[in-house]
Write a structure and sequence with these properties.
The structure holds three protein chains of three kinds.
Chain A: H1 2-27, H2 35-52, H3 57-82, H4 84-104, E1 114-115, H5 126-150, H6 152-162, H7 164-169, H8 174-200, E2 202-203, H9 210-223, H10 230-246, H11 255-273
Antiparallel strand pairs in A: 1-2
Helix pairs in contact in A: 1-5, 1-8, 1-9, 1-10, 2-3, 2-8, 3-4, 3-8, 5-6, 9-10, 9-11
Chain B: H1 3-33, H2 40-58, H3 63-91, H4 96-118, E1 133-136, E2 139-142, H5 143-165, H6 167-177, H7 179-184, H8 189-212, H9 221-237, H10 242-258, H11 270-282
Antiparallel strand pairs in B: 1-2
Helix pairs in contact in B: 1-5, 1-8, 1-9, 1-10, 2-3, 2-4, 2-8, 2-9, 3-8, 5-6, 5-8, 6-8, 9-10, 9-11
Chain C: H1 3-31, E1 40-46, H2 53-72, E2 81-87, H3 92-106, E3 110-113, H4 116-129, E4 132-135, E5 150-152, H5 157-170, E6 176-182, H6 185-201, E7 204-211, H7 219-228, E8 232-236, H8 240-251, E9 257-260, H9 267-273, E10 281-284, H10 295-306, H11 313-335, H12 342-352, E11 354-357, E12 361-364, E13 376-381, E14 384-390
Parallel strand pairs in C: 1-2, 1-3, 3-4, 4-5, 6-7, 6-8, 8-9, 9-10
Antiparallel strand pairs in C: 10-13, 11-12, 13-14
Classes of the chains: A mainly alpha, B mainly alpha, C alpha/beta.
């Protein structure tokens, strides 16, 4: 049962990550592959302040979250000032660069990472207790995002999405909105990272690389971008599915790349056949196609090349 | 560091810059003509490499037949990406999000597929990486060095001649400049897209062949290492300047090589990642040379009447009605 | 119902059913009784994919043969030994999942694992759940401090990397060393021990640089080494990087003495480097055929099955012996009619203390959780490894 509780915890961590990423990608229309890095920053900062400065894990988690949000500004502001499209490129550099730093800095334990991180919960049955806590926490995160997106903030996002020029003409600043979205989403990733660090007590740069980027993208696209529950569905599915595959007793050596092939094929399939994801759709809205070129201009041949 | 060691560093740095240059030209070409940031080129490199790997190490073929197989595979992959990928999304008016996701995920897919089939251990195309050497003064020059420089030079020249002095090449440039106008003159957009993808495939194949005969490759190397330089060089050269991108790649690679004199070996790889930021923040329109102002290009998406005004705007105008 | 409502209802419930089915399968797994009554299980986590898989595969073959051999001779008190092998890809997060499975699903009292970074990551799990953990092949000196239930069967870096510098300084007269290492736990730890001991012996370390595992172009690094002008270059690497560095060194005309540790004990490396391999010195911590009478038969077995020597031969010797250690522990516990828990397996280890093993001779598990072994020095001569010395 311990094993099942651990899977529950991991699913909840992924729900938080995917929801935050969905805010950035699905609602904000910003492609960034650097989401795992904010996950990492949250985890490492939180771990380090508790290990080196003796900050209790609960507060360390808050610090980790804020560190991730602030760091995201370092990525979003320079690139968004130029163009939203440059963000994806900058995010590639950001992701690979920060992973490289984590791998080589003495402070972060280099390739070995950090171990013996102070635990946020020390009880008998800690896994069960923490899994229940995480379910609540993950649920809260999802609801926070839902609130954000359905209120004034959400209306601003939709207005910006539908016609950015008009949006600017009305005196609203699209860049500021995007930076805020990016910070909230990344802060959430940092939150997830800090919780992860203080429960599993071990962090290593390997967990924050391109594989994680691919997994998160799969969760959001397959679950349904720009929907509330899409990322939740994607996260749960993509946490549970690989574990289930392990039990199929396939040759052990192909398990890992096989997961990778399945994730990526799923994304490609959904991009083609069902860009709204599992839970997006005409009735509920959402999906990647909310970002297709539409609005005032249509090319004369209706877009046919 | 003595003078001849520095000379050696310069020479070998220059020789290894060749494959970076080929990758940069391939990336810049597709961006120019197809208007796509083709991150799927990393995946295409993976297919190219493993086609060569199968030909050389599993089928035991010699150099030329192996390259032919590689050519067939790589061109096929590139054409399929255009026909079944970019074209489909273009027709659907898909957002730039979709293009980015599609290209990046395609590369990841190729990497995992390669790991699944061939394993995750690093591979080499030849049983030994040592090639014969001879001395020029105090500098060691290897056969590989000469081969790489020759191959790159010939391909770059051929591309140049093609684009400037052949009908087909002129058509490519016309479509790159203004697809609607080009079609009005009877030039087929689809054909131009296909030709540019095929040319980029040739460049990618050559680059990965050179790389693979010099060093070992992990399936993930194209995405983590090789593509990054291609992207930086393309940005620095300014979108639309294919050959400038090739030169930018050489300069970048030389800079990377000389960095060992200043920073520890373990920090060298970071340079490329920092450069991406520098490139974007300070040179989003490329390092603009006085005689040619780079024409700014819109990436994937339906063309808009804003196209010609793009040069006056900031950075790349986004697909869709407004700027992002 | 409107058609779109129906569609979303169907797709929603379809997804729900999928998740439910999978969770159901998981719960069933977690609650299923342990496999075949009577087998004595132990876990083994090693890299079967990833850059380190080249070692992992041969190591697992050694384990499988050992289990077969033990069972063929009647097993442990009539019961068969069973190895549960999982891939950890030399990645800590995957290792944690694998070990969690050993502990909570398979419920083994002892498991074996390798690779310093994974060993460090899974140690807390072993300690918290009181399951005995045997580290085989990992050599970070920190392993001895990882906890009550963590023991190594393989000498840590402070054994061979202490002896080698002394040998180079004393026996071979080397005075200036350049040290290159791959940026991971083992590389760093080993390189540090080498450097500290070379300086202690009286030598000078003229260069101390690391590089990332994925690097392929070493030209700059090699030129830096050349300009530092050492008389020995010690490379603490994996495999491919070692070959690439030495290849580039030889290409640039550097004939300097090269040394490495046990991972370089690899005939494929000699083949890839050709003449460039001549003279390379490698330490090994497993006995040679001169010192172990079972080794020739073991080598013959490899020749027969695979037509070659195993990769990382000395490591596989330790892996072959590991099931024998486990068998001895089980025997001790069963003889005393104690339940085979991790606690009792640990008790067994501490009381037995010294064991005679087929391929690595005697091992003594010391109080401080370390083991001591003689260091063997091998040098490439005429295209093969030849023994040139032994410490202690």
């Amino acid at each position: 049962m311990e094993y099942v509780y651990t899977i529950v915890i991991l699913s909840c961590v992924n729900v938080i990550l995917a929801s935050g990423f969905n805010l950035i990608l699905g609602y904000g229309g910003l492609v960034s592959i650097a989401h795992p890095i904010f996950y990492a920053i949250g985890g490492y900062v939180s771990a380090l302040v508790s290990m080196k400065l003796g900050v209790p894990p609960i507060f360390a988690v808050v610090i980790g979250t804020m560190a991730a949000a602030i760091a995201s500004v370092g990525l979003s502001v320079p690139s968004l000032r130029i163009s939203g499209d440059y963000l994806v490129i900058a995010s590639i550099g950001f992701q690979l660069g920060l992973v490289h730093i984590l791998n080589n800095l003495e402070l972060t334990g280099q390739a070995g990472g950090l171990s013996n991180i102070p635990s946020i919960i020390e009880l008998p049955g800690r896994t069960l207790v923490f899994s229940l806590i995480m379910i609540v926490v993950a649920g809260l995160c999802v609801l926070v995002i839902r609130k954000l997106v359905n209120g004034d903030f959400g209306r601003a996002i939709i207005a910006m999405r539908d016609d950015e020029e008009a949006f600017s003409a009305l005196g609203r600043n699209p860049i500021k909105l995007k930076v805020v979205l990016f910070a909230v989403g990344s802060g959430m990733a940092g939150f997830a990272g800090s919780l992860y660090a203080h429960f599993f007590l071990y962090l290593t740069p390997d967990d924050f690389g391109i594989f994680t980027s691919a997994a998160l993208l799969t969760m959001v696209v397959v679950g349904g971008a720009a929907t509330t529950w899409g990322p939740v569905a994607g996260a749960v599915l993509l946490t549970v599915l690989p574990e289930a595959i392990k039990f199929l007793d396939l040759p052990v050596s192909i398990m890992a790349p096989l997961q990778g092939v399945i994730f990526t094929l799923l994304v490609i399939f959904f991009l083609y056949a069902r860009p709204q994801g599992l839970l997006g759709g005409r009735r509920r809205g959402g999906g990647l196609e909310v970002w297709s070129s539409r609005g005032a201009y249509r090319s004369p041949d209706g877009g046919e090349t | 560091m003595t003078l001849d060691l520095i000379g050696q560093l310069a020479w070998t740095g220059f020789a290894t810059a060749t494959y970076y240059s080929l990758f940069a030209m391939a990336f810049a070409l597709v961006l120019k003509v197809n208007r796509v940031w083709d991150f799927a080129q990393a995946g295409t490199m993976v297919f190219a490499y493993f086609a060569l790997y199968v030909a050389y190490t599993e089928l035991g073929w010699s150099v030329v037949p192996g390259l032919l197989l590689g050519l067939v595979v790589t061109v096929a992959v590139a054409l399929m990406l255009e026909r079944f990928g970019f074209d489909v999304f273009r027709r659907r008016n898909s957002s730039i999000l979709t293009f980015f996701i599609f290209t990046i995920v395609f590369s990841q897919f190729a990497i995992y597929l390669a790991e699944l089939i061939f394993g995750t251990e690093p591979k080499t195309l030849t049983p030994t990486l040592i090639s014969p050497v001879f001395m020029v003064g105090k500098i060691v020059v290897s056969h590989w060095d000469l081969k790489a420089i020759a191959v790159t030079g010939i391909l770059a020249l051929a591309l140049y001649v093609f684009m400037r002095h052949t009908r087909e090449g002129e058509r490519l440039v016309a479509v790159a400049d203004n697809p609607d106008l080009a079609e009005a003159y009877g030039i087929s957009r689809k054909r131009a897209y296909a030709v540019s993808m095929a040319l980029s495939a040739v460049l990618l194949l050559a680059g990965i062949y050179l790389f693979g005969t010099k060093a070992a490759l992990f399936p993930s190397t194209p995405l983590n290492r090789l593509l990054v330089y291609a992207v930086i060089a393309t940005i620095l050269a300014g979108i639309g300047n294919v050959f400038a991108a090739g030169i930018a790649a050489v300069l970048l690679s030389l800079m990377q090589a000389f960095s060992i004199l200043v920073i520890g070996s373990k920090w060298q790889a970071l340079l490329a990642y920092i450069l991406i930021f520098v490139a974007i923040i300070f040179f989003p329109r490329g390092v603009v040379l006085p005689e040619r102002l780079s024409r700014l290009r819109r990436p994937a998406g339906p063309p808009s009447p804003d196209d010609d005004e793009g040069a006056a705007g900031e950075g790349i105008p986004a697909a869709g009605p407004g700027k992002r | 119902m409107s058609s779109s409502r129906r569609k979303s209802y169907v797709s929603g419930s379809w997804r729900a059913m999928k998740v439910l089915a999978v969770s159901g399968a998981l719960v069933a797994m977690a609650w299923s009784p342990s496999s075949a009554e009577g087998t004595l299980k132990f876990g083994v986590a090693d890299p079967l994919t990833g850059p380190a898989a080249i070692f992992g595969k041969d190591q697992m073959q050694a384990i499988r043969w050992a289990v077969e051999d033990i069972n063929a001779k009647g097993g442990v008190m009539g019961r068969k030994l069973e190895a549960i092998i999982l891939d950890h890809q030399a990645k800590p997060s995957v290792g944690i999942t694998a070990v969690n499975r050993f502990v909570h699903v398979e419920k083994v009292p002892v498991f074996i694992t390798a690779f310093s970074n994974v060993v460090k990551a899974v140690a807390p799990i072993a300690n918290r759940n009181k399951v005995l953990m045997l580290s085989v092949g990992a050599n970070s000196p920190e392993i001895k401090n990882l906890g009550k239930f963590v023991y190594t069967t393989f000498p840590l870096a402070d054994v061979d990397m202490k002896a080698l510098p002394k040998y180079l300084y004393g026996k071979l007269g080397k005075r200036k060393a350049a040290v290159l290492y791959v940026n991971h736990e083992t590389g760093r730890a080993g390189a540090k021990v080498f450097r500290d001991n070379f300086i202690k012996a009286g030598g000078k370390v003229v260069l101390f640089e690391s590089y990332e595992q994925q690097r392929s172009d070493f030209t700059g690094l090699v030129l830096k080494v050349k300009s530092a002008n050492p008389d020995v270059v010690h490379i603490h690497s994996v495999i491919r990087d070692f070959t690439a560095i030495v290849a580039q060194m030889r290409q640039l005309g550097m004939a300097v003495q090269v040394t490495s540790y046990q991972t370089a004990f690899n005939p494929k490396m000699i083949k890839a480097l050709g003449k460039g391999a001549e003279g390379i010195i490698v330490t090994a911590l497993a006995p040679s055929v001169q010192d172990n009478k079972n080794l020739p038969a073991y080598l013959a077995r490899w020749k027969k099955a695979y037509g070659r020597e195993p990769i990382g031969l000395p490591y596989t010797q330790y892996f072959y012996d590991a099931p024998y250690i486990v068998a001895n522990l089980y025997k001790w516990v069963l003889e005393r009619k104690l339940p085979p828990t991790g606690e009792n397996m640990r008790k067994a280890l501490v009381s037995i203390k010294t064991m005679q093993l087929p391929l690595t001779n005697a091992v003594t598990f010391k109080e401080d959780h370390t083991v001591d072994k003689p260091v063997y020095y091998w040098q490439v001569k005429d295209g093969r490894f030849q023994l040139i010395g032994k410490s202690r």
